[in-house]
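Hi there,

I know you've been waiting on this one. I reran it after we fixed the sequence typo, so this is the corrected version. Both the input and the resulting structure follow.
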Amino acid sequence: AALSVEGFAALGSILGTMKRMIYLTLTIEPPSPDCLRAVLVPLGSLPCLAQLFLCLPGADHTTLTLNLTNFLSEGALAVASLLWKMTHLRTLKLRGVPGMELEELAEGMAQVLDLEALDLDFIPETEISRWNAKELALALSKLDQISCLTLTFRDATFAAGCVVELVAGIRIAVQLEELQLHFRDGEFGNLDDDVVSSVCHAVQQLPKLRRLVLSFWRIGQAGATALSTSVAEIRPLQELTVNLPACGELDDAHFVNLAQAVAKHNTLTRLSFFLGLCSRLSDGGLRNFGGVLMDLVNLAAVDVHLRRCGRVSDAAFRDLVLGFLKLPLVDELAVNFYECDKLGEKLPVALQAMGPRLATLSVFRLGLWSCKKVENTVLKQWAGALGRLTNVRTLQITVAGSKGVSNPGVKELGAALEKLTSVEDLRCSFYSLAALSDVGAEAVTLALGELTKLHTLTIDFGHCTGVGDGALKGVTSSLVKLRGLRKLTLDFLSCARVGDDGARALAAVLQGKRLEKLDVNLQDTGVRCRTRRISLVELDAFQRSYIAM
C-alpha cells in the first residue's frame, strides 16, 4: 500500500525476470491504475507462469475488476495474455474494453473455462468490426459455465453484419440465467431498429433466462414491436428491466403492447422500466399501460422512471403508482420523475391516504429531478407520505434542481426523517438546490442522529452553494450517535461555505469510527486541506491536517 508507481514498476521488473516461475499470488491494496499496470505488464512475458492469483481489495479472490482504459495498448494485450492463467476466476469485469483489439482479449477470456459471470464495458465511441464481433461471439460460445453476461456499448459504431455475429454468440450461451445488454447511444453511435431487432431475436432464444435487462437509448416503432415480441416469447422471467430513455416515436399503442408482453410473465417478481421523452404518451396510454401490468400478482419490487412525459397529467402519475401499491406482494417501490413538469401534489396526497399500505413497504426510493411544480408545498405533502413508512429499512430520497425548493420544504423532510427509526440504509440527495442554506440542511443532518439502526448513510448537498459548515457539523453531531454505521458517503462538492471549522469537526469524529467504506467529497469548498476527496486511504492525512490545528 505504501509503494509508489516507481516501486510497483521495480517490483514488476523483478517478477519479470523469474522466467521459471509457475505460480504467483499477488495482493495489491490499494491499487491505482498506474500501479496495477506497472506490475502486471511484465508478467505477460513469463513463459512458465501457469497460474496467477490476483487479489484486489473490495472483492473476493474469485472476482477481478479491471479498467483497461488505464492501460496502454501493449498493457491491455498483456492483461489479455494473463487472463487464461487466472484459473481461479469466477467473475470477470472489464471496463474500457477496446472495440478494435478484441481478438487477444477474447482468446484470453475463452480460456477461463470456469467463468460464471462476465461484464464487458466498451470504451465510448468505439468501432465494432464484424471480425472482432465474431471473435467475441466465439469466446462466449466456449464459456460453457457462464450464467451471467453484461455487455455495455456507449455511442458504439457497428459494422454491417456485426450485431448478427455478436448475437450468434449470445444464442449459443444456453446456460445464461442473467443477461444485461446496454446500448447507450447518443450523438455518435449508429444504433437503429435493425440492431434492436437482431438483439431481441437472439434474446428470446435463451431457454434458461431468468433475469433480463435491456437498455436501448434510441428506439423506433419497428424496434418497439420487436422488443414486445421478444419479451412475450421468453419464459419464465423472474426479473425484467426495460430502459427506453428516448422513445419519442412511440405512441400509446406501442406502450400498451409492451405492457401486454410483460404481463404474460406471471412469474415476475421484479419489474423496472425507464420511459423517457415520451411526447406521444397520453394519460389514457399511461393508465392502460399500468392497468395491464396489474395482472402481475407475484410482483414484489417495482421501479418506475419517467422523464419528460409532457402530455401526462399529475392524476395519471398518481393512478400508475397507486395501482402498483394495490398488488399484494409489493414491498419495494421506487418512483423517479425527471423533468415531469405536470407532477404536483396529487400523488403524495393520495399516498398519505394509504398509510397502512405504506407501512408494509421495506424499501422506498423517491426521485424528484427538476420538476417545475415540486416546491415547498409539494415537499410538505411528500414529508407527510414518508412519515407513513414506519417499517421501511432502505430509504432513498432525491430532490434535485428544483428552483422552488428552499429551507421550509427541506425542514419538513427532516422532521419526517427523524421519526423513521427502522431505517438501516439511508441515501439523501439535495443536489443543486440554489435556495437551500444551512437552516434547512441542518434539519436533515441533525435528524440522522435519531436513526440509530443505520449501517449505510449517503448525504449529498453537491452544488448547494448556500450550504456550509452548519450542515457538515450537523452530520458530525449525528455520527457520534450512529455507533453501528459501517459505510459513509458525504458529498459537499462546490459548497463554498464549507470551511475549516466543519472539516475539523468531521476529522475529529471520524477518528473514533471503524468504517468499512468512506467517501467524502470536499472539492471546490473553502477547506484549506490539500486532501479534499477523502476515502479510508486518505483519512489519516486528512485527520493530521486538522487534529493538529
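Quick highlight: The chain has a mean pLDDT of 89.

Best,
R. S.
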